[in-house]
Amino acid sequence: MPPYKIEIGIKADAQLAGLDAAVGMSVERKIQWLAENAGALVHRRLVGMPEDLAGLCKLRVGDYRILYWPYHAQRVIRIYRIQHRSEVYRRL
Fold this sequence. Notes:
By secondary structure, this protein is α+β, with helices and mostly antiparallel strands. The chain has a single domain (5-84), classed as YaeB-like fold, CATH 3.30.2310. It is built from two helices and five strands; from the N terminus they run βααββββ. It has helices spanning 10-17, 21-37, and strands spanning 5-8, 44-45, 57-61, 64-71, 76-84. It has a five-stranded mixed beta sheet. The radius of gyration is 13 Å and the shape is globular.
């Protein structure tokens, strides 16, 4: 099966660019892994989200979190945020 297409939001792209090089590489590898395995994964949805963030999922990369929406029908993963775990949930 072909990998899912990755769409990185403007804010997530800026957050990725601002990461330490080693952390950034780990996050990029995890995003690539997500694209290749999204169809077979059990996606961990966040609970208690407002309606506009319903279905938002998380992926762990060390102390960082990737928040994303999977769109299985279109085979797309849309990346919403990439932040340290101590900050990522505060500004949703």
